[in-house]
Amino acid sequence: METTRTDITPTTARRITITAWAMAAFGTVAGELHALARFNSHPGDLTEGLGAKWAPDAIDALRPLLDWSDPFFVYYTYGKIWLPICLAFVAAAWLVYRRRQPHGAERWAWRVQLAAYVLLTISVTGDYYTPWMEYFFIVGIVALPVMGFGGIWLGILLLRNGFRPRITPWLLIAFLPLFFAITTVTSMGNALLPLMWGWAIAAHRVAQPTSPQLVSQQAAAAADFYNRDAVTRI
């Protein structure tokens, strides 16, 4: 099957979906290990927030996973997990966008959100794969409020336009309050986990052969084919 600008083959869609599910599950576990590495290398973070309630005991229990090198090196090493995780959920969001073929205000809201995801991925890459963490961290600080407020915009439009599953737009809308709630308990990276699960769920839905987005796309493609065929016969 050939692909067009607004089409992704079923095989590719299935691979994106599987990867999104796998990375969401991996991030849920590995993200907490990275949070512990953060607490271990930045003890000052435990002076406030709910992390102090659980992190010290967890650090003691998982000491072999945290003391195999210098605490900062361990922290930066575990931080590398966020790049493949971010790539997976950006791909899942892109799959949903391509299958949905939005128009008008929703299309612009999608573009803003996807641009913010790309900025965040660039930030994560720079944070843990280059020596310029402080500069790339600023890129992430720019991306996060755009994701928050842009997610509210996109989420409302998706709900209004009948998007399914509804859990994904609700998670977009709730990103900012969830971000502040999650960062009081664990590290900042884990605040991305609700979005990762939301896009994995949405990608799974649109990758199904009977999904409304795919059925609509196939109908449009068929109509275009018959129109072109009719013109050729004339």
How far apart are the termini? 27 Å
Helix % is over 70%
Structural class: mainly alpha
Number of strands: 0
Radius of gyration: 20 Å
Shape: elongated
Low-confidence stretches: 1-5, 214-233
Strand content: under 5%
Q: Taking all residues together, what is the mean pLDDT?
A: 87
Number of helical elements: 11
Order of helical and strand elements: HHHHHHHHHHH
The largest sheet is: none
Question: Topology of this protein?
Answer:
Layout: H1 10-41, H2 51-61, H3 63-66, H4 71-79, H5 82-100, H6 104-129, H7 133-160, H8 167-173, H9 175-183, H10 193-207, H11 212-233
Helix pairs in contact: 1-2, 1-4, 1-5, 1-10, 5-6, 5-10, 6-7, 7-8, 8-10
Description:
This protein is mainly α. It is built from eleven helices and no strands. It starts with 9 loop residues before the first helix and ends with a helix. The N terminus and C terminus are likely disordered.
